[in-house]
Amino acid sequence: MQLKVKDIRKSFADKEVLHGINFTVQSGKAMGFLGRNGAGKSTLFRCLMNVFRADSGQFLLDGKPFKPGDYRIGYLPEERGMYAKNKVLEQLVYFARLRGGSKEDATRSAKEWISFFELDDYANRPLEHLSKGNQQKIQIAQAFLNDPDILILDEPFSGLDPVNAGIFKGAIKEFVKKGALLIFSSHQMAYVEEVCDDISLIHEGDILLTGDLDAIKRQRGQHKLYMRVDDLPPAALIDLLKQAFPPVTCDILEESIIIDTGNQVAQTDIMAFLSKQPWTVARFGVYEPSLNDIFISLAGGEQA
Fold first, then answer.
1. Please, are residues 65 and 3 in contact by the beta-carbon 8 Å criterion?
2. Which of 14, 151, 207, 255 fits a disulfide with 74 by CB distance 3.0 to 4.6 angstroms?
């Protein structure tokens, strides 16, 4: 399956919050939909599910207008909405039946996901009796009920410890292997890098970049080198490099620097220059930006 988001616009009152959004989600590939708080992620998700009606544009599934009612959609909202005083199994069965499952299928699916997250002992307890992390696992479980065709996860890793995050990543990967569509947003960039094949970055209602994550990293790291010297502050090192190699530009990344050669200076020339200096070069090599680096460089400031 292929979901095409085509020129989606949405306004509230006189403020347009989505300015013609375009990207594609392909089955068999997890899509990370990233952006700062208020960028438009949740609004786009709600337009996709027809909770909000887009002002213009289309959602196309395999080239045809997407009708949410014709597909099983699993959704994990950022704002949690389950019932604290209801028993875990009972409400999971309730949600599964709301989505069209028979009582038998709903019960089977609910029990499978409770077991998957190792919460069998809590199945007949009210949700409020569970720890925050276990409540989050139940929230996640409801999104997977009834084997959805499309899974939309908004900040799914919030509240999960590393062990449970690992279990959840396994569930995501198995889901994607089945050929379903997966879109999720997260501020935890390391998880996005581990799970996602493609990304789309939205900022203030506009898509800044979209595509294959590995290809984006290669493109944004082209002609760039990474260097860290222990005996010299980054600013002083940049001054010396610019004197020796005027064509290069440099940026500071924490205690290191990124050198952009612009394909005008050979890496071997820079290495030869460094070998003649009295400094201790702690690290030197080809620079490939992390997703966090890309996010900050495009969206500005710290991730929110």
1. no
2. 151
